[in-house]
Amino acid sequence: MRAGTAPSLADIEAARRRLAGIARVTPVYGSETLSRITGREVHLKAENLQRTGAFKIRGAVNRIATLTETERAAGVVAASAGNHGQAVAWAAREVGARATVFMPEDSPMAKVDATRNYGAHVRLVGEGFDDALAEALALADEQDATFVHAFDDEQVIAGQGTIGLELAEQLPGVETVVVPVGGGGLCAGIALALAERAPHVRVVGVQAESCAPLAGSETHGFTIAEGIAVKHPGELTSAILAERADAIVAVADEEISEAIVLLLERAKLVVEGAGAAGVAALLAGKVEGAGPAAAVLSGGNIDPTLLISVMRHGLTLAGRSLVIRTRLVDRPGELIKLLSLVAEERGNVVSIEHHREGMDLPVSESEVELTLTMRDRAHCDELAAALQRAGYPVERLH
Fold first, then answer.
1. In what order do the strands lie in the sheet with 293-297?
2. Of the residues 45, 56, 80, 111, which is catalytic?
3. pTM over 0.85
4. Annotation says 35 is catalytic
5. Of 31, 80, 298, 321, which residue is the catalytic one?
6. Which of 83, 212, 340, 386 is the most buried (most CB within 10 A)?
7. What pLDDT does residue 270 have?
8. Does residue 298 have an active-site annotation?
């Protein structure tokens, strides 16, 4: 294979043979909930259940399997937002090679710790993937080590393309496959495989709005989908996607957050921001067509603190979490009256903050902030109305 050329079907099939017994053939689940919401048949390719928690093991193992003994002895270097680093660390450990992985300073600690636990030396540098990439390339050159690119590498793309082979076999009737896009290796590999095995299938890439260069955006901001926050997609992957991808769309963090919550609650699948991007695009109506669609859940390595925040936010948007502020006469028994009314309206109290000092209140009053779990938005409105009828001023904070 010549450097800088797209992998062929034969290359992807060779990768599949190398990955046999290592990378899992991940399941595909039909989702009745997503199908009902979107008005089309929706399936989920669960790469979040892959070894190391993401699709990246496919490309990393395929690339590292081609190293010579001399190259293994010199070690490997990688730059990663998290999932590629874990995959390289795991694959290098299996062949006895030293691995050094550069990751952005704000990388989720779940991904950092996992990469270290797989045996890699982790260096945290810079604000994003591009900073980590520059440092990794410099070290690889300095140590004459093999740099394992996260996406712009023929063997890596071929490894990711094995997902396309699986999809062609698992979902022969699918019309559209929706794939998260950061550097583009995953979408490029899948598109190449499907072009050969299922040429009727449309491939739609999805980026986060705050970092969507292939979708025509020039902004580079924060996103909860850090796994696809790549300012500069690869030259090779970009060329492949320009030819093979049918569309590239962008989704907002709010849409990604909604998808994460829905996948966890209804499909019982834990998915990180990047992994939920395809589902977010389907939910937002940004994927054309009405036929069967498959979303690739590219990874499930979400930081627990982010997951908690996303779940709280999602419950609030759905009207199932309510925070209100009100005032009471500051005398015994008033708080229990308020809580009794909340109980009558079937609100569930999660927490209470009772303030008397340091507030701009009359001397005879105190302020109470309640965090409640509710059924839905209508239930929130009913409770607020009941409190107001009883004479309690209501300020809805969330």
1. 28-30, 42-46, 293-297, 176-180, 202-208, 247-251
2. 56
3. yes
4. no
5. 298
6. 83
7. 97
8. yes
